[in-house]
Design goal:
homodimer, 247 residues, alpha/beta, 60s Ribosomal Protein L30, Chain: A, 6-stranded parallel sheet, 9 helices
Chain lengths: 247, 247
């Protein structure tokens, strides 16, 4: 049972403005919920249908899961197919960008990636390949958008996203920047060394001119057919795979 | 100007059943439209806003583009953000599966891929890497779904999708089947030779048991982090990239 005011509060969290104000975001689905539960994230509250109650696992004593009906769930869910459980999770404090900690690692940098599904898929893929930090330009999609959380399939609980001015960041670091461009050296002939930033651009416009001038190594995924471009999450995954196969 | 009955006819094509009955599907956006226009597909009709009229290119004399308002466009569009042009395109006759023609090539086979966005992205990626045939199980998402067409970004005009019983097809062909599984040989150590079928499974359940027994080479994308799985379009792209880098 859930009150009308709770329903409207949770629905308000479908909007970015309210997530920011309340410091909360929505996680749906049992698998994602468990991954956040077993992470440093703090679960604020849990709403789930009767049959899922026994599967919740060890919750802190502070959390009393609220049993709701399918119909109530569909009212608060941000998904077209709700998944029996919805949790509110606290948005953690912003991580400061400490460039020293990023040395000897590979990380992704996203310049204005707009589609929430793409961002979520990039987070999931980075997690698969063991890249735990993604630096995002300020105009990249918001990470706590329910569609991003959903597409990340729980990987958001392990991957750290930092939003910052990428120009300033690149100017302050000595880590080499590999930019995904249409006219660079073949990725198959690129040596990625022991550390690097893989920079990927916006879905329609690619990498901004300001950032292009800061790329140390322009890299291209060779084209064998006729498509004009690759989806940005696809490019990201091929970069992740290539640098792991070589390291 | 567009009549009420035209609006309701076009809207009816948002549904699979009506696409099949009418033999028509929807293509939106100028870039996709041009790619279908320059292909073997037959354009049936074109609806576009005033400012786009001069950019349509050379249409056959049979086609008289209909000028419509933004508001009319939003009523017939299947997209949340309509793109100034919508065309109806004829669904071509089914291609027969001629196994001989598929020798000495690489192709993708999809076992029950459900998400239209994933299918569209796989088509676009296959086109980038020059793989022109995708064999789909009968329960794979329908290729003329507007979301598939949209995500393929025009590549559907160049990639041939054949829906068939994959078990029968695998039994009839000698082309080696490489299956994307969690417990196979590392993709980085796999030699793909000169021809092969890359088999990818359903988003939630992977490759069916019946098809698993028909795999000649189980292949895995090694995991370096903690995500439980990769998105199927991401797996497909890493397979495409690997077999091209080796061939």
């Amino acid at each position: 049972m859930i009150s009308k005011s709770q329903i409207s509060f949770i629905k308000s969290l479908h909007q970015k403005k309210n997530r920011k104000e309340q410091g909360l975001f929505i996680v749906e689905g049992l698998k994602s919920f468990h991954e956040f539960l077993n992470s440093d994230y703090v679960i604020d509250s849990v709403y789930c249908t009767e049959n899922l109650m026994p599967k919740l696992g060890n919750l802190s004593r502070k959390i009393k899961p609220v049993e709701i009906t399918e119909s109530e769930l569909s009212r608060i869910s941000a998904l077209s197919t709700p998944q029996a459980i919805l949790a509110l999770v606290q948005i953690p404090k912003k991580t400061d960008l400490n460039a020293t900690k990023l040395e000897n690692l590979f990380l992704l940098a996203l310049d204005g990636v707009q589609d929430p599904g793409n961002l979520g898929t990039i987070i999931r893929t980075a997690d698969w390949f063991g890249l735990n930090t993604i630096i995002c330009s300020m105009d990249t999609a918001e990470v706590y958008n329910p569609k991003v959380v959903q597409a990340s399939m729980g990987s958001l609980s392990r991957v750290n996203l930092i939003y910052t001015n990428l120009e300033d960041f690149f100017d302050q670091t000595n880590i080499p920047v590999y930019g995904a461009l249409l006219d660079g050296k073949s990725i198959y002939e690129t040596n990625f060394g022991q550390e690097g930033i893989i920079l990927l651009g916006n879905e329609g416009n690619g990498i901004s001119t300001e950032l292009q001038s800061r790329i140390n190594f322009p890299v291209t995924i060779p084209r064998y057919g006729k498509a004009e471009s690759l989806n940005v999450a696809i490019s990201a995954s091929i970069f992740c795979s290539e640098l792991r196969r070589k390291s």
